[in-house]
Amino acid sequence: MASVTLQHVEKDYGSLRILHGVDLEIADGEFVVLVGPSGCGKSTLLRMIAGLEEVSGGEIRIGERLVNDVAPKDRDIAMVFQSYALYPHMDVSSNMGFSLLLKKAEKTTIDTRVGAAAKRLGLDSFLGRLPRQLSGGQRQRVAMGRAIVRDPKVFLFDEPLSNLDAKLRVHMRAEIKALHHQLKTTSVYVTHDQIEAMTMADRIVVMHDGFVQQVGHPLELYDRPSNIFVAGFIGSPGMNFLPATVSKGGKADAVLADGQKLRLPDGLPLQDGDAITVGLRPEHIQPAENGALKAEVEVVEPLGLSTQFYVRIAGQQVCVFVMGRSTIRPGDAVRLSAEPAALHLFDPMSGNRIG
Amino acid sequence: MTYAVSEIRSAGRRRKRRLSHAAIEPWLYLSPAIVLLVVVLLVPLIVGISYSFRKFSAFKSEYVGLGQYQAMLSDQVLGQALVNTLWWTVASLFFQFFLGLGLALLLDKPFIGRKLVQAVVFLPWAVPSFLSGLTWAWLFNPIIGPLPHWLYALGLKAEPTNILSDPATAMWGPIVANIWFGIPFFAITLLAALKSIPSELHEAAAIDGASPWQRFTKVTLPFLAPTIVITVMLRTIWIATFADLIFVMTEGGPAGSTSTVPVYIYVSAFKSLDKGYASAVAVLLLVLLIAYAVALIAIRRTLVRHV
């Protein structure tokens, strides 16, 4: 096992810069998830750690060793691909034992390690099958098995669950997590799905347009997003954003486009008349009889466990998340309240968090 | 179908009519295709095979049973033609395949001017075989072609003579022309197969520790195998029955040294006017090629399990 260190890693395709100086320290045994929309550079970064893409600038270290110019096979890593990349002409056991065979390991060693990995993944009875004779979930497991058999320093996952149906994805998510708990191998996991990131990661790295936006524990990102992008990307349903102006008569208020006021928390570096963007998580804005905000309900989505409303406040559609069931109907006028402490304030120009 | 079953149970006589109707119906729908196949494929084949049991002379023909086939057994020219066919086919196929595979592998990698090279590589495919046969015959002719002089300069020949006029070397002329003519076929089909290999497979193999050669033998070749088997089979049959180049370049000579079975069939039918014997030889060639194809398909079944 080993740590992975990225120092100002850059990637260019011709004149196009894909990654703008990524710095990241992944500790030994940590499970780090790179998340972001497609085209943000997360897969490229992973492939650079794997050695499948050249490094245009900066340094990548696995453990203490600089690996910029080390061939993939000498980096002691294993990768699980989105398409699984199983060898279609080899049966499951040959697929899993291929790397050991190439290392000229003893046949008994190969059989033992393949057998152990197959047992761990519940693939014992499929060892003689070809990949095309397996279901999607089984193929995914074989791809994992191929990685485990190598006993690498680092596991790399490139959207490994994207090709599975929703139910299986949830199941495999838990399985990968449990596996990491047992093996404690340093893992870097790429996904575009923020729920996967939230549920699996020790730490999340949010990326956008080739820049790292924020690195942190899942709930840290949820509770204190450092900019509007992270705030909107993490969490489902997503955070609501309302443009407002600061008014400092006595206590600080945020004045919305239609003149309604939201009480702001104290002690923020705000000036009277500042333009701000107010971020509100759907669960932090709740119906209340004497609530400060007036809104009209447009859509009601009953989910059994909870109910989601879409209401209109100051011309913006806002999502409200309420536990349990509700008698509120579309077209109703409601009053809503939000705790000042639950507000997230952002600078609308830079998008950065205020306070 | 439940309707039909209840009908069958109810009445004996009506059942028969119903059943025959149901049995005929699909054949009616298929009939246009069947008629076409029978007229175009089966009738000429049967007529051709029936010729092989007859002897043709100027104005009449008579049934001779297996007489033509008995004559084949003692025909030494035919024996030579079979050996020539084997040599012609194996040598042409061998070089066409390996040079075509090499070209396909080269064209699979990006380099400057690839589009142009691709166009040039595929050019022979567009040249009529008659024309390429003539061109190659001229290239081998020491009076107008450069090749004999080059071979002489390289020390491969004692004198700059025409290899086509020497029975010992004559077969190499059409073979070289055929190699040139057939490379594009393998290059095109194998390049298409190469392009269909997912890049992740090569990446996974690279991470697993495979060297470039191991990646070729353990990933690329197994992927190409189905294409290789089918193209080699098709190409063998085409080469074995391909007489244009040989006939244009040597007419089977000198001294029968380039006479393959198709050339011999042509000469028997249209020079010796022995259509019955030509048909018998053609049937022999047909049987040999069918046996070859069956053997190759069986090999494919056992070797290529993953398709």
TrEMBL record, chain A:
PROSITE patterns in the cross-refs: ABC_TRANSPORTER_1 (PS00211), ABC_TRANSPORTER_2 (PS50893)
Cross-referenced Pfam families: ABC_tran (PF00005), TOBE_2 (PF08402)
Subcellular location: Cell inner membrane
Gene3D superfamilies: 2.40.50.100, Nucleic acid-binding proteins, P-loop containing nucleotide triphosphate hydrolases
Gene Ontology CC entries for this record: ATP-binding cassette (ABC) transporter complex, substrate-binding subunit-containing
Membrane-protein topology: Peripheral membrane protein
Keyword Transmembrane helix: no
Record bears the keyword Nucleotide-binding: yes
InterPro entries: AAA+_ATPase (IPR003593), ABC_transporter-like_ATP-bd (IPR003439), ABC_transporter-like_CS (IPR017871), ABC_transpr_MalK-like (IPR015855), ABC_transpr_MalK/UgpC-like (IPR047641), Mo/tungstate-bd_C_term_dom (IPR008995), NA-bd_OB-fold (IPR012340), P-loop_NTPase (IPR027417)
Organism superkingdom: Bacteria
Molecular functions per Gene Ontology: ABC-type transporter activity; ATP binding; ATP hydrolysis activity
Residue span(s) of domain ABC transporter: 4-234
GO biological process: carbohydrate transport
Keywords: ATP-binding, Nucleotide-binding, Transport
Similarity comment: Belongs to the ABC transporter superfamily.
Annotated PANTHER family: BLL2173 PROTEIN, MALTODEXTRIN IMPORT ATP-BINDING PROTEIN MSMX
Protein name (Swiss-Prot/TrEMBL): Glycerol-3-phosphate transporter subunit ATP-binding component of ABC superfamily
Source organism per UniProt: Mesorhizobium metallidurans STM 2683
Gene encoding the protein: ugpC
UniProtKB/TrEMBL annotation, chain B:
Matching PANTHER family: BLR7065 PROTEIN, SPERMIDINE_PUTRESCINE TRANSPORT SYSTEM PERMEASE PROTEIN
This protein's UniProt keywords: Cell membrane, Membrane, Transmembrane, Transmembrane helix, Transport
GO cellular component: plasma membrane
Location in the cell: Cell membrane
Chief location category: membrane
SUPFAM superfamilies: MetI-like
Lineage, opening ranks: Bacteria, Pseudomonadati, Pseudomonadota, Alphaproteobacteria, Hyphomicrobiales
Family per record: Belongs to the binding-protein-dependent transport system permease family.
Species this protein is from: Mesorhizobium metallidurans STM 2683
Transmembrane spans: 27-53, 86-107, 119-140, 175-194, 223-249, 277-299
Occurrences of domain ABC transmembrane type-1 (ranges): 82-298
Full protein name: Binding-protein-dependent transport systems inner membrane component
